[in-house]
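Extended Data, record LuxR family transcriptional regulator
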Amino acid sequence: MRVVIAEDSVLLREGLTRLLTDRGHDVVAGVGDAEALIKVIAELADEGALPDVVVADVRMPPTHTDEGVRAAIRLRRDHPDLGVLVLSQYVEEQYATELLAGSTKGIGYLLKDRVAEVREFVDAVVRVAGGGTALDPEVVAQLLGRSRKQDVLANLTPREREVLGLMAEGRTNSAVARQLVVSDGAVEKHVSNIFLKLGLAQSDGDHRRVLAVLTYLNS
């Protein structure tokens, strides 16, 4: 897996680089601001060497507001097959919503605290690089919370809401089953009920289910 890291904290950038390279991944570039990120991706694209995924901070120089997420959205527009995983200190629903407004293929939004959970963080980067979705549980909770205020999920049982939240994080049925300590068959039944109640057509692939759920939550 080839990765570009955009993080203005040198310490965190070097830490992420070490974390990924120690696990056999190739960090092809590390930059400290959004402008440099746009430039290095353009150069790599011109060379026919686009990375599999970009890991970028939401807030970057010069204003430390939304430069990182703006760069991520632009990169997704210019390179639809490029995976983008953004890191944020806090859940910023506006940024998450904007990032997820288009296709959620190869998209991730994690809180920086998750980096300390090394295995889960690396798994998330790999999943996004492969075209999957990786959403922080706190991001999912806020999206679900907003939807509940609109009575969107009123017909779901508490367990179905729990399953939906785990699905939106990008987890497979088997991963959901392990998390909830239930059988795969039980999860499949919950998933079927969720799509039936939400009026969403069920599809075969986990990513397509996640895409449908997120599209619904952002409608």
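Summary. The chain has two domains: 1-141, 155-216.
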